[in-house]
Write a structure and sequence with these properties.
By secondary structure, this protein is an alpha/beta fold. Helix content is 32%, strand content 22%. The chain has helices at residues 15-26, 42-52, 60-65, 81-90, 105-118, 132-143, 175-178, 180-191, 307-319, 327-343, and strands at 6-11, 32-38, 55-57, 71-74, 94-97, 122-124, 149-155, 198-204, 215-221, 227-233, 243-247, 250-254, 258-263, 292-297.
Length: 351
């Protein structure tokens, strides 16, 4: 009888590997067992041993050759994602790769080729597709209440000075590569199935001490799709709300914790007819819109959140459920990221 638990090896015990992946896996003991970890820091390795009673390695080759490991979580620095994922797939392991999927489109395509050649599952950790606010936004849009969606604006800005490895281009750093994949992926899910036809991107260095971007302005368009406007900046002292969606029948706004939306029913509105005659008293047209309004609060939400990522993945590996987040779907994120770097290259400092 096949073991229900999937035995996992976590490569990298930093912010993502420990605070996110180890935490989530630890909350699903019936589905997953952390069997091994990899990290250069002895204290981190011991922390994992104490918590999970697992093997601990200092060499990646040892982790992916461990016969007890079925699934490898690649939470290494961004520039190691592609080679790490491919090596694990070729060693016969299923793979969860942290975002960004890779640091180039060519590397993303190598990863897709590897999963197709080995027959092993490769998924990218775009867990924000499971975030309650995104799921609610998608539900409202799909309901048709807002009419044709004209524009979707996503904002993830604050005022933040940073000086770690993720501020350096040579390590695949920058806000576009690190924060950007979450919001580009969400936006593309709402944009539709196609690739954008028009892309504008401006990248800037503002407060970072490294040579990578920390200010991103991205706008893209396509036929029969909403205009997408994304802002990710570390130089915003007055950040706006995360979501602002404009539709022909209403709109939606809010944050990851609270959303509100309003719409109207054209059938109950006073009919309008184009009129070229002067308006009474030289006034503007006045439309008494009968708004309907609803709201959502995360405090009342019962969805599993990012645990849903690993719950779905377990069903894929153990029961053959279609993979929820395919590498092919994430390829669009990589294409858009590379297009931004092409349109607005930043000089790389030489040490």
């Amino acid at each position: 009888m096949e073991q229900k638990q999937i035995r996992v090896g976590i490569a990298g015990l930093g912010r993502s590997g420990w605070d996110i992946h180890a935490r989530l896996l630890g909350e699903l003991p019936e589905q997953y067992q952390v069997a091994a970890v990899l990290d250069a820091d002895a204290n981190r390795r011991q922390e994992a041993i104490d918590k999970f009673d697992c093997q601990a390695y200092t060499e990646y080759s040892e982790l992916i050759q461990d016969p007890a490991v079925e699934l490898v979580v690649v939470s290494l620095p961004s520039f190691l994602h592609a080679d790490g994922a491919i090596a694990a797939l070729q060693a016969g392991k299923h793979v969860v790769c942290e975002k960004p999927m890779a640091t180039s489109l060519a590397d993303a395509d190598r990863m897709i080729a590897a999963t197709e050649a080995t027959g092993k599952t490769l998924t990218i950790f775009h867990q924000r597709r499971y975030y309650p606010d995104f799921m609610q936004v998608k539900k409202v849009i799909d309901s048709g209440l807002l009419g044709r969606i004209v524009q979707i604006r996503l904002t993830a800005s604050n005022f933040s000075r940073r000086w770690d490895w993720q501020t350096l281009q040579k390590f695949g750093g920058g806000s576009l590569n690190n924060t950007g994949p979450h919001f580009l992926d969400q936006a593309l899910q709402l944009f539709g199935a196609n690739y954008p036809e028009e892309v504008f991107c401006h990248l800037d260095r503002t407060l970072t001490l490294g040579d990578a971007d920390d200010h991103v302005k991205l706008v893209f368009k396509g036929q029969d799709a909403p205009t997408i406007d994304i802002e990710i900046s570390s130089a915003c002292a007055y950040p706006g709300e995360t979501w602002n969606i404009m539709g022909t029948l209403g709109g939606l706004a809010g944050s990851a914790k609270q959303l509100r939306w309003k719409w109207f029913d054209p059938a109950v509105q006073t009919p309008r007819m184009l009129d070229t005659q002067p308006t009474p008293n030289r006034s503007y047209n006045r439309d008494d819109i009968q708004w309907q309004e609803e709201s959502w609060d995360i405090a009342n939400d019962t969805s599993p959140g990012d645990l849903g990522f690993y719950m779905d993945l377990h069903e894929t590996i153990r029961s053959g459920k279609p993979l929820a987040i395919t590498p092919q779907s994430v390829r669009r994120v990589m294409w858009l990221t590379e297009e931004c770097h092409r349109l607005c290259p930043l000089p790389q400092e030489v040490e």
